[in-house]
Design a protein that fits this description.
The complex is a heterodimer of chains A (111) and B (113). Chain A is mainly beta. Helices cover 0% and strands 58% of the residues of chain A. Chain A has strands at residues 2-5, 9-13, 18-26, 31-37, 44-49, 53-57, 60-65, 70-75, 84-91, 100-101, 105-110. In chain A, a hairpin with a 4-residue loop joins β7 and β8. The radius of gyration of chain A is 13 Å and the shape is globular. Chain B contains no helices and eleven strands. In chain B, the strands form two sheets. In chain B, strands 2, 4, 5, 6, 9, 10 and 11 form a seven-stranded mixed beta sheet that branches. A four-stranded antiparallel beta sheet of chain B has the order 1-3-8-7, with no helix packed on it. The termini of chain B are far apart. The chains are: A mainly beta (111), B mainly beta (113). At the A-B interface, β4, β5 and β10 of A face β4, β5, β9 and β10 of B.
Chain lengths: 111, 113
Amino acid sequence: GQSLEQPSEVTAVEGAIVQINCTYQTSGFYGLSWYQQHDGGAPTFLSYNGLDGLEETGRFSSFLSRSDSYGYLLLQELQMKDSASYFCAVSPLSGYSTLTFGKGTMLLVSP
Amino acid sequence: DGGITQSPKYLFRKEGQNVTLSCEQNLNHDAMYWYRQDPGQGLRLIYYSQIVNDFQKGDIAEGYSVSREKKESFPLTVTSAQKNPTAFYLCASSARAANYGYTFGSGTRLTVV
C-alpha cells in the first residue's frame, strides 16, 4: 500500500517563502505530484517530479529525493491568494495509474 | 473550453435512498476517477475507469457503484448500503498517464438528511 505524511497546517506572511514537506512509503513508486485546493473548490495540478531534483514553475518549485522517499513544495513571494490546501500524491506505476493523496497541508498566508 | 462538469453542486438525500452523481468530460481523456473527501482528510479513491465498459474498485468502493458506457461520462451511484455518505465527491480525468496531472471537476457536496 501507500502512505504519505505532510504537515496539517503551515502559516506564513505575504512575501515570505514556505516549504511544505511530504514523506511517503509506497509499494511501488513512479513519481510525486502536488495539487492546490482552495476551500470548497476543485484541486488543481501544480507540479510533477519523476526524477530526483528540483522542478521550477514560476513562484512554485517542487523537489524529490527518491532515496529518502521525500519531497517538498516550495512557494516563494507568498501572496494572500496562495492560502489554500496543498496535497502531495504518489503515482505507483507508469501509464494509466491512480494517485494516492496525502491528507493535505493548509497554508494560511497573513498580511 | 474543455473540462469536467459535475452536477449537481449540492445534493441532499434521505437515509435509505440511492442517489447518482453526474460527471461529464470533454477532454477526450481515457481515464476517469471518483474520489471522496472528508473534512481534514485527503482524497480517497472510490472507483476508476481506464477504458469504456471497464472499471475497477478503489480503496473505499463499498456502498458505491459506477458505470462507463461512454468515454465522456462516469456517473457514481451512492447506494443505501453506504454507511456514511455525507462528503464532498470529486470526479477527475487524465490522459494516458496520471503523472501528467488529473483534471478535477468542481465537486458535489452530498448531505444525508
